[in-house]
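Input (Spore protein SP21):
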Amino acid sequence: MNRIIRYTYPRSANLFANRNPWAGLESEVDRLFESALADLAAPARAPRFPVDLYEDKDNTYVRAELPGVSREAIAVEMVDGYLTIAATRKQGEETFSLNRSVAIPEAVQADKVTAAYENGVLTVTLPKQEQVKPRKINVSVN
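Output:
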């Protein structure tokens, strides 16, 4: 059964006196259609897997859990500021493709990126450029 929800514009005392009452309607309708159609569009994309991003003073790390994927079935690329991880996993007769791209800051030494895969966890190490690393500055007393 479909339900019709009436959109009402919130009223407040003179905060938005000159604002058009229809201003938020377009984005609200877009959000409604995106959430309603998300399940229909999902099979068209390759399944995504979660990644963790963290950093220390020298490196940025991207960590992805890829259980059941062999090391040979993983491809890692760095192109135009994006780190792309692609993997394939076989389960019986079926083969699943996984793909994820992560925007990486420009402050990374792309030629020194390394990747390690151990116990189903891929860790990509992205060394920071020297000028980006935090530098301790001594304060002298006069």
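The domain at 51-132 is CATH 2.60.40.790 (Immunoglobulin-like).
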